[in-house]
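Now for my pick.
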Amino acid sequence: MPQYLDAAAFIELAQRAEQTQAPVCVCTKTPLDGWQTQPLSLDERQLEQIGTLALQDEAEPTFAEHLPGNLGYWSEEAPIAPRHFPYNRCGVWKCTQCGRLYLRYTEGGGYFVDQRIRAVKAALIEDVPL
């Protein structure tokens, strides 16, 4: 079971990852600054799960979003709010080649399942209560 990361631990992890000079890597072939369907060009074997933002004892996490102003779910500037949807369902993953951090979760509904991914930027993480 991946280790749960509270907001403080998540921010610290993101800041440490950003302090490392990341080499050119194939994980950046497709921009992942906002939520994207995981591109086929990204080799999943290159990603290692290092934690989760999902509380293990929470039966059904909230679907409440934190999107201030006119920001939308897909926006590159949308805050990363760990207690809100979809972040409260995310695993925290690291590229084993360059050390960049990503959030991943599986979106499902009706007749589809979509693996979504977003690059972590420490400056966008907001510890906002529900």
